[in-house]
């Protein structure tokens, strides 16, 4: 019973951990939905300019700009994290291609450090489609929920209108959600009220991509009290034990009957024959035990009936020569099927229990940045793993070639020539020729520079190409080759 209680407690713990893991993955996916990538940022812009441009879509939680330690300037891209996913979605839809600081910024995609997050994001967005909710941002601080509700009621009946509560009473945070009774009313409200001037501020209105109460974090369901958990496990184990006893009784009875049906009846005078004469027991196939004979708890090895010996005294039976001789070592450890099966069953139960304990004690490697920040270091091997990760350099499979050609040298055959030349160092996946203007002049090409990006399949190939091409003269020009930031290239940002 004690072992059964432990098994039930382990199963309950595993089920609770699986539920917690599912809730945690959902929370991590929601955090990723709050982030956007902003590229092609002018090097003259600072963080406050980015915050001012993106704040109308919702409250910004953080802005992370990648700074170059040598030049003390940012690398031309940033990650903006909002408090809610709807603000990030509006920024994706309305800020891509907008002129900021003399350059058209790029707002594309969501950065993801958790590969399995996309399926969870799709599941959340499908769940949000069941509600006719819209997101409203850039609301004037002096407007109330009643004011917003009276404005948006023109499109249809409203179920709920809730603005995000501010730090002080009767103040909101500039955004909120409105849920309509009909889907068409929500669609019309988005198309009509987006960029509508209300109280001197332009409203930002979009669809809600999360269900209500989605950002409450992982499930915080408390554990069952210890006494209650043990009592529940004991009750469950008791029922399982009763079922197991009943099942084993039926199975044991049928197995015993089948074994006895294949053995001959043991006569009283022949019970000691195998040990005295060394006769190997042989079981005839078609013999049936006589009715009325009691079956002992421990079944002895069956004794064969030798023709012509039925009814003889033990003295005469001893004079009968043995049909076959048996190896004495085989008699030293007789195999009893019932005892072997019971021992095997206990061994299987012990093995299953050890596997469950191993699952409970396992600590998987953290998959997200937040998990890695909160992980604990245990043992020498764990410290060695962390040091390897800290020393791991950022990989890049892209080489950028500067000052290789001028804008007048770009033609249809240039890309093919560069690919053939770089194929000496490895497999080339892509060659991109990018013309970048240094001023706002449209007709003048004198201020245009040409950047050539070559993407290889392996980082070692890119490093070999960089070392070979850097400092080489091409058409009278001194080529400058270096590795290009992989994150910029993956987001089609060639402004670095």
List keywords for this structure.
alpha+beta, 16 helices, 41% helix, four-stranded antiparallel β-sheet, 496 residues, mRNA processing, single chain, PUF60_regulator
Describe the 3D structure.
- The chain is an alpha+beta fold and 496 residues long.
- The protein has 16 helices and 18 strands.
- The protein has helices spanning 2-33, 47-54, 85-95, 117-128, 145-152, 183-193, 226-261, 273-277, 314-318, 328-332, 337-361, 369-374, 379-391, 414-422, 459-469, 486-490, and strands at 35-39, 60-67, 74-82, 99-100, 103-104, 106-107, 133-137, 158-165, 172-180, 197-198, 201-202, 204-207, 398-402, 428-437, 448-456, 473-474, 477-478, 480-483.
- The strands form six sheets. A four-stranded antiparallel beta sheet has the order 2-3-1-6.
- The radius of gyration is 40 Å and the shape is flat.
- It starts with a helix and ends in a 6-residue tail after the last helix.
- Residues 218-222, 264-289, 291-320, 325-339 and 363-369 have low confidence and may be disordered.
- Keywords: mRNA processing, mRNA splicing, Nucleus, RNA-binding.
- Its main location: nucleus.
């Amino acid at each position: 019973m004690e072992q059964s209680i432990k098994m039930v407690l382990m199963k309950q713990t595993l089920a609770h951990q699986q539920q917690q893991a599912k809730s945690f993955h959902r929370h991590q996916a929601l955090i990723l939905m709050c982030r956007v990538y902003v590229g092609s940022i002018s090097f003259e812009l600072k963080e406050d300019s980015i915050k001012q441009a993106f704040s109308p879509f919702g409250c910004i939680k953080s802005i992370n700009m990648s700074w170059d330690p040598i030049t003390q300037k940012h690398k031309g891209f940033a990650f903006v994290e909002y408090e809610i996913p709807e603000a990030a979605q509006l920024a994706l839809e309305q800020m891509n291609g907008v002129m900021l600081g003399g350059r058209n910024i790029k707002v594309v995609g969501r950065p993801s450090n958790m590969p399995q997050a996309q399926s969870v994001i799709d599941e959340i967005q499908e769940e949000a489609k069941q509600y006719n909710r819209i997101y409203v941002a850039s609301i004037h601080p002096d407007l109330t929920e009643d004011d917003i509700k009276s404005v948006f009621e023109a499109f249809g009946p409203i179920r709920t209108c809730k603005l995000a509560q501010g730090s002080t009473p009767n103040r909101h945070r500039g955004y909120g959600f409105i849920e309509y009774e009909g889907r068409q009313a929500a669609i019309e409200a988005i198309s009509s009220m987006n960029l509508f001037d209300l109280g001197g501020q332009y409203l930002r209105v979009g669809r809600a991509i999360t269900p209500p109460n989605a950002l409450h974090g992982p499930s915080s369901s408390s554990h069952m009290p210890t006494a209650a958990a043990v009592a529940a496990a004991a009750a469950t184990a008791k029922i399982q034990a009763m079922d197991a006893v009943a099942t084993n009784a039926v199975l044991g009875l049928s197995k015993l009957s089948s074994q006895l049906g294949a053995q001959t009846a043991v006569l009283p005078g022949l019970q000691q024959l195998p040990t005295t004469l060394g006769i190997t027991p042989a079981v005839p196939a078609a013999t049936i035990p006589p009715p009325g004979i009691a079956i002992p708890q421990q079944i002895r090895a069956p004794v064969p009936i030798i023709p012509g010996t039925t009814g003889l005294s033990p003295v005469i039976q001893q004079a009968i020569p043995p049909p076959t001789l048996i190896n004495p070592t085989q008699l030293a450890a007789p195999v009893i099927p019932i005892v072997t099966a019971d021992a095997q069953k206990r061994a299987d139960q012990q093995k299953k229990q050890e596997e469950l304990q191993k699952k409970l004690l396992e600590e998987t490697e953290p998959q997200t940045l937040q998990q890695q920040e909160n992980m604990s270091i245990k043992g020498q091997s764990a410290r060695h793993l962390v040091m390897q990760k800290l020393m791991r350099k950022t990989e890049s499979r892209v080489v950028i070639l500067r000052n290789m050609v001028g804008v007048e040298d770009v033609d249809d055959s240039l890309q093919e020539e560069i690919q053939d030349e770089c194929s000496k160092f490895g497999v080339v996946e892509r060659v991109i020729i990018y013309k970048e203007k240094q001023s706002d002049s449209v007709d003048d090409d004198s201020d245009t520079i040409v950047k050539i990006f070559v993407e290889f399949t392996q980082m070692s190939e890119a490093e070999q190409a960089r070392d070979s091409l850097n400092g080489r003269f091409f058409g009278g020009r001194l080529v400058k080759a270096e590795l290009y930031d992989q994150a910029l290239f993956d987001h089609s940002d060639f402004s670095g």
